[in-house]
Amino acid sequence: MSKNRKLGLTARIVIGMVAGILVGFFFKAILAGQEERVLSLFSLAIPLKAFFVDGIFHVGGEIFIASLKMLVVPLVFVSLVCGTCSLSDTSTLGRLGGKTIGLYLITTAVAITLAMTAAILVAPGQGVDRQSDASFDISEAPSLAQVFINIFPSNPIESMAQGNMLQIIVFAVLFGISMALSGKPGERLAAVFSDLSEVIMKLVTILMNLAPYGVFFLMAKLFTTLGFETIVSLAKYFGVVLAVLIFHGLISYSVILKLLTGLNPLIFLRKMRDAALFGFSTSSSNATMPVTMETVTKKLGVKNSIASFTVPLGATINMDGTAIMQGVATVFIAQVYLVDLTIADYLMVILTATLASIGTAGVPGVGLIMLAMVLQQVGLPVEGIALIIGVDRLLDMTRTAVNVTGDAMVSCIVGKSEKQFDQAVFDDASAGVKDESVDFHHLR
């Protein structure tokens, strides 16, 4: 533990990530063309892939992801109830919701516009062989009417069991409003929820200390199985998507934050390191939500009444990273199949992808389903998606880091505009840092 105290959480996660990548490369090298390779140790025959890659690395990584997801539903419900019932004027919820959703849609539109512009200039699809061994089956996206119907839960407990974020958000908001209007019973219940919120956030802190090990397992397995030959064959596409993701995450968000709040983007990005690393490692905004929530409230200074609404909503509908992939992929597939898109087609792609970010929020495999919708809208062959599936896993990690950063940026803007923002916490370089390390010895 003494060594852990000397190193910050970010440093430990980076060490775990780098170590995992190196171990992954090592296993990929020794398993090349020899999937059944066996290690002889003390007269024991240990199958390397089955024991390490499919065993230790897989189990360790999945347990880490499961432990994070375990917190999502209770964290969202409890924190959102606390935030809603603490609002002095419940009518502000409408303004808060409109402002939050509007900002998420604007950043998504900016993201896909940047992506398509970069793809048109670089032309990553020129000269690419359209043959691919991969295939893509289209899952049907729900209609707009069904999307609105599905937002409202018929069984809140079932919604929580299934992890349906939009339904949980609606129920938590209604429950919080009811508590605020219930007088003394509501106040007593609010105190219980406040204590629950503190306990859950402490559990988040404990799990964050286990993150370096979980990240190590995830990276070790990924880089053992990652096919770099596919990345080389799609180098221009991969490079354009990655470059636009980095630009949007570092530059676009910084400019928007500075223009709308006057806050220092460098402080914001520095304090977002841990959450972004979690997002990169897990490839899941939902799994990263507990860390994002702690970062937004304890490090960036956004009040819980705002963060409890903006962060879960962002994890559900904020698709900036996915929109960037869609923008580049649309132009890429059009170039591969020699289809000329008009200005009207490009505008239709921007509109469709932006609106679809809400409409397909609860659908598994949301990114590729949204891309299929966009391609169909402008008459491009959906089978072109098979060309990019091979490199999507690594790009998905970066997309999630961008999405998580966008959730926090919008939370800061909304918190600042609603006067629910602590400037002193944002400016304090040590804010939230002192709680990162947990001494487990006193628990014995």
Automatic annotation (TrEMBL):
Ion transport found in the keyword field: no
Highest taxon of source: Bacteria
Predominant place of localization: membrane
InterPro entries: Na-dicarboxylate_symporter, Na:dicarbo_symporter_sf
Keywords, ordered alphabetically: Cell membrane, Membrane, Symport, Transmembrane, Transmembrane helix, Transport
Membrane-crossing segments per the record: 12-32, 38-59, 71-89, 101-123, 165-183, 203-223, 235-256, 346-375
Localization in the cell: Cell membrane
Annotated source species: Arsukibacterium tuosuense
GO biological process, one term: dicarboxylic acid transport
Lineage: Bacteria, Pseudomonadati, Pseudomonadota, Gammaproteobacteria, Chromatiales
Pfam family of the protein (one): SDF
PANTHER family from the UniProt entry: PROTON/GLUTAMATE-ASPARTATE SYMPORTER (PTHR42865), PROTON_GLUTAMATE-ASPARTATE SYMPORTER (PTHR42865:SF7)
GO-annotated molecular function: symporter activity
Protein name as catalogued: Na+/H+-dicarboxylate symporter
